[in-house]
């Protein structure tokens, strides 16, 4: 997979995956929490505790525990309210929505976001937004590089009823409703045209259903093949491009960049795509656009987020602005001392500057903080450190 080296902000799209994971309502709330402690909590404290407990359940792979935090019945209502349907149609739609999957599906959409690498789910802080107010943030970090940002929406039942994803700049309920509009709610919908006897639309619907089925079966290659059989007008739509990104990320970099190129071509002027297109600009060496995207992300998700600060440090380094790069890495470390990306970026930049004294200090600090096991032998295996291994600083510190 392609990702930002060092800073590694490879955005992993799971917002759409939740559309495929619609499920039945789980009535069990976090049973282990005591009522007394709940009554003493402020709304912000409650949200932060639920976010932390939900993240811990995901980290431990505890599906049963994780699904107890979810109010999917409320999610179904939110989706249904977004649609322009008659009362009878709303009842039928909501019933079908709730019957289409199981509680495990939503949790598994988180756990299987990147099945071939270690994934970490961490509650970071409460984000205050103009549109949504105060919401707890979970950042998903991938061992091989990359991040996803998720806001949790907690209702009066003290359960999670919706999610807002950085890679989509949208709510799960709205994403699902946008998908549903392709089939219901207008004379131009697939379903309406199919019922009128349009054979072409029958084939379109069949391909769409196959695509969803292959995705649920964990076969992104066949899902992507079915997606590419959709009509050209649909392949240009934001929803279908977003799905293409989800599938292509699991296939290869060529197809991933193809889908990002389509997103930029047909929807690049929409602010909601700026976050996802950071990767596209980065890989096309449009570093100014990548930096603007990073700044937009920081304006929403927080100016002190270590992952985003580390991203900016990488961009500055590629612009040959090493002083700014070092400044950003130091801020990342100060903001989140447990985030190792800032330390490794700083080591890279000191090495590029030939500042071997500072390089020695940061490598030793990495050993101290992360028990990394760095030795003279491991350093000697890194080609980029050849000059360092010949320096007096190296000999004095490691030999």
TrEMBL record:
Give UniProt keywords alphabetically: Signal
The record's annotation in Gene3D superfamilies points to: Tetratricopeptide repeat domain
SUPFAM superfamilies per record: TPR-like (SSF48452)
The region annotated as signal peptide is 1-31
Q: What is this protein called?
A: Uncharacterized protein
Which organism does this record belong to? Brumicola blandensis
